[in-house]
Amino acid sequence: MTTEKLDTNAAPRPNWASRIDLPVATAFGCIILLLLIGSLYSPNFLSPDYLLQQLKVGAFLGVIATGMMLVILLGQIDLSVPWAVTLGAMMASAATAYGPMGEMFAIPFGVLCGVLMGLINGIGVAYLRIPSMIITLAVNAVAQGLMVAYTGGFAPVDSASPAMRYLAAGTIAGIPNAVIVWAITGLLAVFLLGRSTFGRAIYGIGNKEAAAYLSGVPTQRVVMIAFAVCGGLAAFGGVLLAGYAGKAAQSMGDAYLLPAIAAVVLGGTSILGGRGSYIGTIAGVILITLLQSILSVMQIAEFGRQIIYGGVIIVMLLLYGREKSGR
Amino acid sequence: MTSLRYRFAEQRGMLLALAIFIIMFTLYVSNHPAGFTPNVVQTAANKGVLLALVAMAQTFVVLTAGIDLSVGMIFILANCLASYVLAGTPVMVGLGVSGVLLTGLVCGAINGLLVIYGRLQPIVITIATGAVFFGIALWIRPYPGSADDFSSGLADALTGKVFGVFPASLLFLIVLVFVVWVPFRRSVMGRAVYAVGSSEPAAYMSGVPVMRAKFTAYVLSGLFAAMGGLFMTFFTYSGEASLANGNTYTLSSIAAVVLGGVSLFGGRGSAIGAIFGALAFRAIGDLLFVFDFDPLWQPLFQGVVLLLAVSLGSARLFQVRNRLDLFT
Fold first, then answer.
1. Which of A72, A78, A87, A134 is the best residue to mutate to test the B interface, defined by the most B CB atoms within 10 Å of its own CB?
2. What are the DSSP E strand ranges found in chain A?
3. What was the pLDDT predicted at B322?
4. Does B320 map to a domain?
5. What confidence category does residue B160 fall into, taking pLDDT thresholds of 50, 70 and 90?
6. Average pLDDT of B132-138?
7. Residues of B102-132 as b/e, b for ≥16 C-beta within 10 angstroms?
8. How many CB atoms sit inside 10 A of residue A272's CB?
9. What pLDDT is recorded for position A326?
10. How many beta-carbon pairs below 8 A join chains A and B?
11. Is residue A49 packed enough to be buried (19+ CB in 10 Å), middle (13-18) or exposed (0-12)?
């Protein structure tokens, strides 16, 4: 997008393999470090129950961050995640209220609403060439307006369908379903990014869209679809959250925008696009979830949590998020 | 003729924002039950100036092709700090004001140093520093409130009316433009900021002090965000560490900047445009109050107007001459 980025990508990168591995390794190292620090505080931190619980909490962020990663790999950003999450949760809950038929289609309906929202973002970015930061911000505002008008400004009375509850809060053989859902989403993402033309196209566009276009990639369509998928996954995260909490709530998605971006970036994905692996995003999600959990278990006041949270992200980024010197 | 056309193209965004503002404000005033009175203008100006200051803060960084997602949090931090220090004798208040502005400078400097020497992407790093700034704000002001001996003299003077007609806050903003923005725009440093935003490698090759330009932009951004927080305290007489408010101001500042014709790709636009963008944005928001709409529809209306204005202002589809142009 900028000439600066052009430069960093044009520069020869002889040790690119180690550059990709370093962030992921550091992120996993930090996860182990966090667990060790936690276990000094209380041995419970190393118990399987606690770890599974963390994975379950992280699954919601994981699903949302997956979509965000696709968009960030393109070198774009999706700021409409907060209300895509809320939209998905509210629409799925609303559909549940329409009898058994609605209950059946609650989850697809919620996700579909998110896809539509993402599609508007995608058309704006890919075809109208509006900077993603602007169009997603505006679409977020519109979605918020729609939801406020729809619910009357209160938490909606509809509650989540049994299927949503089962998906988010149930367990199969002791493993929380939410974790399984995240695992399936993750596997699909890994396949998509590594083994499909669509995934190759995403990396290509993230590196240099003009080059991808000249190589015959339908760049505009790919960008549009990536945004639609991101919207759909955010809404799906919202559906899961609604299932977990029993119902949707106003601004339930606000707490997911920055952690989603942070998780993707901490996992080594370049915010400029074109570089990053899904395993890093998994590490980022777990890292953020653990950090939040440990800070709250240690009963550090909210202000301290914010400061440490921000500080840790800064330090980690300084460790491996740095751009190559441009000159 | 060509130079005239060039100048028009250069100011297009600002003129668009000005037009939107005039239309929206005329609609607002003509439908306001009290009409075009100094009081109505004063209230509108006070609310507008608040966002205008934060939008100016955002402008400096956006001009360097960066983005500052921590302006809202610096704003909140300054607000919370000011609610303590704007107390006691005039000397104390003066010291307090300097302290708040200094805090803003330091916050901006931290952002700048991390971006320049940490070589980190501004969008990510300012998210993180924003969390830290907000944490500090929450620390000093866990519950909304103000100092016991809060001194409202300065606050009333700056939020009142000059000669009973002209809003003082607007006057302050105009003075600020002429004392800070215009000299900055004409200085070497100002040119350097635009050059860095247009093309950093080219600026570097031309011997432009790239690092100093960026640093200046971030520091000024912190300063203006703190000024916004100071004004917030002037209006409310209190401080509140509200995460929602911080985020709203950050996002509104981006919207205002874009509405005001400042390019997010850097190097184009002006703080004056951003000011009109902010005023227009506020006028749009106020419009529904005078039209007796159900307040529930306000966010939707605001969102749709924002979507249309901002999309039209920034859609590059209508500006390309060649298909490959799309991708640059």
1. A134
2. 171-172, 175-176
3. 62
4. no
5. confident
6. 91
7. ebbbebbebbbebbbeebbbbbbbbbbbbbb
8. 21
9. 52
10. 185
11. exposed
| Confidence at residue B218, expressed as pLDDT on a 0 to 100 scale | 95
Residue A224's pLDDT is what? 94
Q: How many residues are given for chain B?
A: 328
Q: Does B244 touch chain A (CB under 8 A)?
A: yes
Domain count, chain B: 1
Cβ-based contacts of B121 with chain A (< 8 Å): 271-272, 321, 323
Count of alpha carbons within 13 angstroms of residue A122, beta-carbon side: 24
pLDDT tens digits, one per residue of B195-211: 999 888 999 999 999 99
- Measure the CA dihedral B178/B183/B189/B190, to 10°: 50
A56 within 8 A of A169, measured Cβ to Cβ? no
Q: Which domain holds residue B61?
A: 11-312
Neighbouring residues of A327: CB distance < 8 A, sequence distance ≥ 6 = B201, B204
Q: How many domains does chain A have?
A: 1
Query: What's the CA gap between B224 and B56, in Å, rounded?
Result: 7
Q: Which residues in chain B have their CB less than 8 angstroms from residue A304's CB?
A: 135, 139
How far apart CA A254 and CA A258 sit, in angstroms, is: 8
Residue A18 has pLDDT above 70, yes or no: no
A149 to B258: CB separation less than 8 angstroms, yes or no: no
Domain assignment present for B3: no
- Residue A13: what pLDDT? 47
Q: What is the CATH number of the domain that holds A184?
A: 1.10.3470
**Residue A231 domain-assigned (yes or no):** yes
* B323: in domain: no
How much is the pLDDT for A8?
44
Tell me which chain A residues have a C-beta less than 8 angstroms from the C-beta of B241: 303
Please state the φ and ψ torsions of residue B264, each to the nearest 5 degrees. -70, -15
| Residue ranges making up the domain that contains A88 | 19-320
Q: pLDDT tens for residues A235-265?
A: 999 999 988 888 788 778 878 888 898 889 8
Residue A11 lies in a domain: no
**Domain assignment of residue A84, yes or no:** yes
- A277-325 confidence digits (pLDDT tens): 898 899 999 998 988 888 887 778 878 888 888 888 888 888 776 766 6
Residue A308 inside a domain? The answer is: yes
Tally of CB atoms within 10 A around B209: 16
Average pLDDT of the residues in B157-185: 86
pLDDT tens string A45-85: 778 888 888 888 899 999 999 999 999 999 888 989 989 99
Instruction: Label residue A6 by pLDDT band (50, 70, 90).
Output: very low
Q: Which of A1, A3, A220, A324 to mutate to test the interface with B (most CBs of B within 10 A)?
A: A3
Q: Residue A311 and residue A314: Cα distance in Å, rounded?
A: 5
The answer, for B142 touching chain A at a CB cutoff of 8 Å, is: yes
Cβ distance B276 to B21 under 8 Å? yes
CATH number of the domain enclosing B165 = 1.10.3470
Residue B228 lies in a domain: yes
